[in-house]
Amino acid sequence: MNARIVLLDRIIVLLVGLSVLAGGAWAVGLFLDIPLAQGLADRIDSPAWLTAPSTGWFDPVLIVVGLLSAVLGGWLIALNLRRYRIGRVVSPASDALGSIEIDLATLATAVARQLEEHPRVESVQATVTDSWDRPTLTLTLRAHADTDVPALRAALNQTERDVRAAVPGIDVDTVYRLHLYPVES
C-alpha cells in the first residue's frame, strides 16, 4: 500500500475516533450531570432541529451531503482496493546507448514455475506490486502438510540467490509465503 494512502487512512480513522470519543464523553458527562456536558446540551436549539425538515433548504442540503458522502466513500474504497502492480523496471546497467528494462511479472512467473517443481509443493502464485513505494515480488507457496520444510527453505534460499543474480542492481523486495495444507488422516 502507498504511504500517502496509509497516512490518509490514519488521519480519517483518527478524526472519526476522536469524534466518537468526544460523543461518548459527552454522553457520559450528561449521565453524570457534569456542568460542561450539560452546558453543551443546553446550547442545542431543539426546536430548530425539529423544524429543519420542513424548511425549503433542508432537502437540497441533505441530497448534496448524501451525494458528496457517497462519492467520497466510493473514492476511499477504490483507493484502498486498488492494486499497485508493477510492469517493467529499468536496470541500472542502462546508459545513453539504450535502456534495459526487465519485466518483473514475467520473472515472478518463471520463479513460480520453478518452485512448483519442488516435491510436495502443490502450487505457487506470484505477484509483483508496489508495497510502501517499493517494488515487491511476492510468492505464495501452497504445500502439503508433510513437506520437508528445511529442504523447502533451502530451495527458497537458492531461489532468492537466483532472483538476485537475474536482476543485478535492481532494488526489489522478495516475500515468500508458505501455506501448508491441513494434515490428512
List the defining traits of the structure above.
elongated, Alpha-Beta Plaits, 54% helix, 2 domains, transmembrane helix, transmembrane, Alkaline shock response membrane anchor protein AmaP, alpha+beta, 6 helices, 185 residues, three-stranded mixed beta sheet, single chain, two-stranded antiparallel sheet, membrane
Q: Stretches where pLDDT falls below 50 for ≥5 residues?
A: none
Number of domains: 2
Amino- and carboxy-terminal Cα gap:
40 Å
Average predicted confidence as pLDDT: 86
Please give the share of residues in helix. Answer: 40-55%
Report the principal-axis shape.
elongated
Beta-strand fraction estimate: 15-25%
Q: What is the N-to-C order of secondary-structure elements (H for helix, E for strand)?
A: HHHHEEHEEHE
What is the CATH superfamily classification of the largest domain?
Cation efflux protein, cytoplasmic domain
Assign the structural class, choosing from mainly alpha, mainly beta, alpha/beta, alpha+beta, or little secondary structure: alpha+beta
The CATH architecture of the largest domain is 2-Layer Sandwich
According to CATH, the fold-level topology of the largest domain is Alpha-Beta Plaits
Biggest pleated sheet: 3 strands, mixed
Please identify the top-level CATH class of the largest domain. Answer: Alpha Beta
Give the strand order, joined by hyphens, for the main sheet: 3-4-5
Write down how many β-strands occur, each being a DSSP E stretch of 2 or more residues. Answer: 5
What's the tally of helices? Answer: 6
- Cα-atom Rg, whole angstroms? 28 Å
Keywords: Membrane, Transmembrane, Transmembrane helix
Protein name: Alkaline shock response membrane anchor protein AmaP
Transmembrane segments: 12-37, 57-78
Organism: Corynebacterium hylobatis
